[in-house]
Design a protein that fits this description.
It is a single chain. The protein is α+β, with helices and mostly antiparallel strands. It has two domains: about 80 residues, Dimeric alpha+beta barrel (Alpha-Beta Plaits, 2-Layer Sandwich); about 35 residues, no CATH class. Helix content is about 30%, strand content about 25%.
Length: about 140
């Protein structure tokens, strides 16, 4: 698994102009199972994406397809990716604040959006006790 961080290099107006294309890019890779969850950072100066890939080269090839990466000669955002081996998690993630109050998306909401009916694999926990179903 990889954690991808985007950091905007331009005004939000330029980012917003590419948002529809960016969301289409995300949806393409949600459908393929390569992207799991994504969202804006707070404050809104970039975003975070959790992705599945065999190696950094595959992830970087995906990143370079993002319209935010391709717009302008040097892109609208800088990207970094880190490989992570996630080994523990809550069996039933619950929000600590209301989605409506904070503007934050709960884990279940984010994963539910990122999953499709054909993409409902389970995420194994390290100790093997339980797993969290990705489709929320």
């Amino acid at each position: 698994m990889f954690v991808i961080e985007l950091t905007y290099k331009v005004d939000l107006a330029e980012i917003d102009a590419q948002m529809a294309a960016h969301l289409a890019f995300l949806n393409k890779y949600y459908a393929s199972g390569k992207l799991l969850v994504s969202g804006r950072k707070t404050p809104r100066d970039g975003g975070i994406i959790l992705a599945m890939g065999k190696d950094r080269e595959q992830i970087e090839a995906i990143i370079h397809e993002d319209p935010v990466s391709r717009a302008r000669p040097r892109g609208l955002a800088s990207f970094s990716s880190e490989r992570a081996r996630l080994s523990q998690g809550s069996p039933e993630p619950t929000p600590t604040t209301s989605h409506r109050d904070s503007g934050d998306t709960t884990f279940k909401q984010a994963v539910g959006r990122a999953s499709s009916p054909s993409n409902t694999s389970r995420l194994p926990l390290r100790d093997g006790r339980r797993s969290v179903k990705r489709d929320g």
